[in-house]
Amino acid sequence: MSDDFRSGFVALIGRPNVGKSTLLNRLVGQKVAITSPVAQTTRNRLRGILTLPQGQIILVDTPGIHKPHHRLGEILVQNAQGVVKSVDVVLFLVDGSQPAGGGDQFIADWLATQKTPVLIGMNKWDACPRHQAAAITQSYQQLLPNAPVLAFSALTGEGIPELQEQLLQMLPPGPCYYPPDMVTDQPERFIMAELIREQILHLTREEVPHSVAVTIDQVEELPHITRIFATIIVERPSQKAIIIGHQGQMLKTIGSRARAEMQKLVDGPVYLELFVKVEPKWRETPHLLRDLGYRPEP
């Protein structure tokens, strides 16, 4: 390792749906975070690890910062804000296809009170109308005049090498914290649960997504197959009916799609069995939030 090797932690902060999880997957080169058109998809603090010859960037994905509507939402926003105090750099991700809005201003005002260096990342640059590019860029530069601004697209990969280089330059000299071939520090069971939740987010109506949690109850690693048993938790019987679907068809579709993704994760055949359970108001119940892994970070 050379003397100028740089390493450190970078928090991905931004409004819901600006592409944080898509960017995380793009940077580490494979899927470690679930993506969805539904806002506030990310719930747990997720680390993605990018190791380059000249340094190691440890990316901390956070839930989109928004006005919380329940105890779970309060914990998520509180944790996202807590991350900023413990990292080396903040990558403030914005939607570069449109001008800065009130939500961006809210986050920028808060970041201005913090000591952590900030890089403004204008994602979705491939969708930016070229005749508006200068005005849109200026709208973000005005949010934090001292922060550098970089445009790129997590979807196409345009500008990603420049983003990596800029982040490395902002990190201090340091060690290789994780083995070079490691892309996330999350346990396999967490990723499995997220892959199931991702399919629910894609396949179900608006009533369901934010009311869903997934637990992995058992994983049996047999010589020729991995057997996984998981429970989908919802808040109301009507949501359970939606998840199961007519003659169990929705649950079968969720299971088959999640299984296909899990087979990439474990590199082999998977048997997946799903159960659905109703836990009224789990998002408001402290002991259920704790049991499901949602607790305020220290």
* CATH domain topology of the largest domain: Rossmann fold
- CATH class of the largest domain, anyone? Alpha Beta
> What count of structural domains?
2
Number of strands: 9
CATH architecture of the largest domain: 3-Layer(aba) Sandwich
The CATH homologous superfamily of the largest domain: P-loop containing nucleotide triphosphate hydrolases
Proportion in helices: 25-40%
Biggest β-sheet strands, sense, barrel: 6 strands, mixed
Q: How do the strands line up in the largest sheet?
A: 2-3-1-4-5-6
Question: Which ranges are low-confidence, i.e. pLDDT below 50, for 5 or more consecutive residues?
Answer: 37-43
Instruction: Name the helix and strand elements from N-terminus to C-terminus, one letter apiece.
Output: EHEEHEHEHEHHEEHHEH
Distance between the termini: 33 Å
How much strand content do the residues show? Answer: 15-25%
Report the total helices. 9
Q: Which radius of gyration do the C-alpha atoms yield? A: 20 Å
- Judging from the principal axes of the Cα atoms, what is the shape? globular
What's the short story on this structure?
By secondary structure, the chain is of the alpha/beta class. It has 9 helices and 9 strands. The protein folds into 2 domains: 6-170, P-loop containing nucleotide triphosphate hydrolases (Rossmann fold, 3-Layer(aba) Sandwich), CATH 3.40.50.300; 188-291, 2-Layer Sandwich (GMP Synthetase, Chain A, domain 3).
